[in-house]
Write a structure and sequence with these properties.
CATH superfamily of the largest domain in chain C: P-loop containing nucleotide triphosphate hydrolases
Protein name (chain C): Electron transport complex subunit RsxB
Number of strands of chain B: 5
Mean pLDDT of chain C: 91
Number of domains of chain C: 2
Radius of gyration of chain B: 13 Å
Pfam families (chain C): CbiA, Fer4
Distance between the termini of chain B: 41 Å
Protein name (chain A): Iron-sulfur cluster carrier protein
Order of helices and strands of chain C: EHEHEEHEEHEEEHEHEHEHEHH
Mean pLDDT of chain B: 86
Number of helices of chain B: 3
Protein name (chain B): Dinitrogenase iron-molybdenum cofactor biosynthesis domain-containing protein
Chains: A alpha/beta, B alpha/beta, C alpha/beta
Low-confidence stretches of chain B: 117-122
Largest sheet of chain B: 5 strands, mixed
Distance between the termini of chain C: 11 Å
Strand content of chain C: 15-25%
Strand order of the largest sheet of chain B: 3-2-1-4-5
CATH architecture of chain B: 2-Layer Sandwich
Oligomer: heterotrimer
CATH superfamily of chain B: Dinitrogenase iron-molybdenum cofactor biosynthesis domain
CATH topology of the largest domain in chain C: Rossmann fold
Structural class of chain C: alpha/beta
Largest sheet of chain C: 9 strands, mixed
Low-confidence stretches of chain C: none
InterPro entries (chain B): Di-Nase_FeMo-co_biosynth, DiNase_FeMo-co_biosyn_sf, MTH1175_dom
């Protein structure tokens, strides 16, 4: 069962919820798809880490075979190629690895080489298998890393996979929720939070994903996110109160369910609710 | 000698554009004939790699010198490979910059900024 | 004319809260929201004004004409982005399509064409001589980097040369952040005193260094973890990055924001602290 945790707005508590859900389960895989700013591993401190480099393809031109026809330069939708002084010059950071230049070259002068854009690490923290994707600073897109993270995940009813998503609702978020069976939207009680919640709300509906909301950092004041959920008839899976102690523990990267019985119960019960929702979806064929 | 300058409009009294890659037009000024021509910058609409495409335009139009307030790394590589010299503009008057260049008052543009990476796709 | 960009690496540290306060303190006439994926600044600064909207076109998207398609599968096998899907015929997943044009080039019968696609909306709020540029990226779209560039361009074209411009950044270190960094004169990093916050702060600092932009750091909600705050301050000292003060956690900040005010519009501790940070920032600028 793939459960994705997203929020739209940053800082609402995606990692906090994902990490603790994974740790509260009898066994789980935690996948950190926020490859630009991964945080889950800071909490888990996984051991026995196995690392894999993630590469994309970059074109290489054989100047002996090149006749200067410029078909590659003209084809490139990203302007990653230039023709100067009788030679084709390639701009690696602009290249999107589409393979088009290689395709259109009439002389077969273009081949490809690998460029590393980041890594995927897998390790273990007690009952949780931790998979982390890390994008190298300066690289523009983490999509190939997210693809790698999710590709070999066994998705069965017994296997719980928690996918910690990046903030926002752009292409990297979409890539992260593609294979999700259920989405947990984490909302905070501010107008900023609500505005961004609406975006991911639209996103999960667009992808026809079943979903529910966890209201985080709740206090006595007005909660625009809660009001919105009630109005739109969105399932509220749980409410987590603003708790200074929790904030401190979280800032020290402690996994609260591993040290506090009350929160362990909260997350175990939340997990139970999510499983029930997923089962409900599958049995009603929704 | 042909001088290229990124400009805001395609008329003589136009000002120097703050962007090189996405300048709406380039003005080409021939020092010997004192003729000026304007070229629409097709790179401006690019999703990405605008600097590269703009520099390619200068190469294809046989510019010898570029007067610009700034230049990105990628574009600079293209220009340097083509032996086009870069000079830093002062102020926004095209006329004044050409005059300053002709009497050797403009400094070589040496602070090349890092690539903008604002390309299309993800 | 100076352009100040506020970034953080980690989400939720308080960029928009700081930016809105700075705009009030500086009486800025030019500002922009570069977080085109999840913009928030307009919720505070755009109230009561109707923006001018412009469609933003991203990369073109492939379109397959089912009547011409012969099902040879050449497009699907050459697409590097898994954007060709077989579902009642060959169709394009517009969210995955990067607009590279390979499928259109390889199709033997011309069934695939590249069509312009709207990827978002640019919004320009104008009031007297104030200019506020923002945008909303269409959900799932790419080309966020280019849209950020358009947002900045829209502001730059309309602002006066002597204006001080303030830009609200986005979380992360990828394409839109890199695009927002280009051409700015200074970056303020709003850090969060937590392990995640510090890890993210270091990565954004690394990114800003690659872009060669001068920067300073401030800590928001510093009292939620004093030892982490000290760690951040120590890091800045080691790395020779100006550290310009701290802002305490303040319940009233949320109240202010939720009522559509900045934290300097009401009397609160965070507002007063932000003012001090602002004054130190101005001295450096």
């Amino acid at each position: 069962m793939n459960v994705a945790v997203l929020s739209g707005k940053g800082g609402t508590g995606k990692t906090f919820v994902s990490v603790n859900l994974a740790a509260a389960a009898p066994k789980a895989i935690y996948i950190d798809c926020d490859v630009e700013e991964p945080n889950g591993y800071l909490f888990f401190n996984p051991e026995n880490i196995v690392e894999e480099k993630i590469t994309v393809k970059l074109p290489v031109v054989d100047h002996e075979l090149c006749t200067g026809c410029r078909k590659c330069v003209d084809f490139c939708a990203f302007n990653a190629l230039a023709y100067i002084g009788g030679k084709v010059k390639i701009f690696d950071e602009v290249c999107h690895s589409c393979g088009g230049c290689m395709l259109v070259c009439p002389e077969k002068a273009v081949s490809e080489k690998d460029k590393t854009i980041g890594i995927v690490q897998q390790g273990q923290s007690k009952t949780v298998t931790v998979k982390t994707g890390i994008l190298n600073a300066g690289e523009a897109s983490g999509i190939p890393i997210i693809k790698n993270l999710l590709q070999n995940i066994k998705n069965t009813e017994q296997q719980l996979n928690i996918i910690d998503c990046p903030p926002g609702s752009s292409c990297i978020v979409m890539e992260s929720i593609k294979d999700a069976d259920y989405c947990i939207l984490v909302a905070e009680p501010t107008i900023f939070g609500l505005h961004n919640l609406k975006m991911v709300y639209e996103l999960v509906q667009l992808f026809s994903k079943p979903f529910g909301v966890v209201l985080n950092k709740c206090s006595k004041g007005k909660n625009p996110a809660e009001e919105f959920c009630i109005k739109e008839n969105i399932a509220i899976l749980g409410k987590i109160s603003f708790d200074k102690m929790l904030g401190t523990e979280n800032s020290n990267a402690h996994i609260i369910v591993r040290q506090n019985a009350q929160y362990n119960e909260l997350f175990t019960s939340l997990l139970g609710k999510v499983c029930k929702e997923v089962q409900h979806e599958t049995t009603t064929g929704a | 000698m042909k001088i290229a300058i990124p400009v805001d409009e395609n008329e003589k009294e136009t000002g120097v554009c703050i962007s090189f890659g996405r300048a709406p037009y380039f003005m080409f000024y021939d020092i010997e004939t004192k003729n000026s021509e304007f070229l629409l910058n097709s790179a401006a609409e690019s999703q990405g790699g605008a600097g590269i495409k703009a520099a390619q335009l200068l190469v294809d139009n046989r510019a010898d010198v570029l007067l610009s307030p700034r230049c990105g790394q990628n574009a600079a590589e293209v220009l340097q490979a083509a032996n086009i010299k870069l000079f830093k503009t002062l102020g926004t008057s095209v006329r004044e910059n050409i005059q300053a260049f002709e009497v050797g008052k403009l400094a070589v543009l040496s602070e090349i900024h890092a690539g903008f990476h604002n390309h299309g796709g993800k | 004319m100076k352009q100040l960009l506020v970034l953080s690496g980690k989400g939720g540290t308080g960029k928009t809260t700081f930016v809105s306060a700075f705009i009030k303190l500086a009486d800025a006439h030019a500002y922009a929201d570069c977080d085109v994926d999840a913009p928030n600044l307009h919720l505070l600064m755009g109230q009561g004004i109707s923006p001018e909207e412009t469609d933003y076109y991203g990369m073109p998207k492939a379109v397959i004409d089912a009547k011409l398609c012969i099902g040879c599968n050449k497009c699907k096998s050459s697409c590097r982005f898994d954007a060709i899907v077989v579902k009642k015929g060959y169709t394009v997943d517009i969210f995955a399509c990067e607009g590279c044009g390979v499928c259109a080039a390889i199709c033997p019968v011309g069934a695939v064409t590249m069509q312009p696609a709207i990827a978002g909306k640019l919004k320009l709020y104008r009031q007297q001589n104030r200019i506020f540029s923002t945008a909303q990226l269409k959900m799932g779209s790419g080309t966020s980097g280019k849209l950020v560039t358009e947002v900045k361009k829209a502001m730059n074209i309309k602002m006066q040369k002597q204006d001080f411009a303030i830009l609200d950044g986005s979380p992360g270190i990828g394409c839109p952040v890199i695009a927002s960094l280009s051409g700015v004169d200074f970056v303020l990093i709003v850090a969060e005193p937590s392990m995640s916050g510090i890890s993210d702060m270091k990565r954004i600092i690394q990114t800003a260094k690659i872009m060669q932009t001068p920067m300073a750091v401030t800590i928001n909600k510093y009292d939620t973890n004093l030892s982490k705050s000290e760690e951040i301050e120590g890091f800045c000292l080691e790395e020779n990055i100006p550290f310009i003060g701290v802002v305490p956690f303040d319940n009233r900040a949320v109240e202010a924001i939720n009522s559509g005010n900045t934290i300097v519009d009401i009397d609160c501790v965070s507002g007063r602290a932000v003012k001090e940070v602002y004054e130190k920032l101005i001295k450096i600028l």
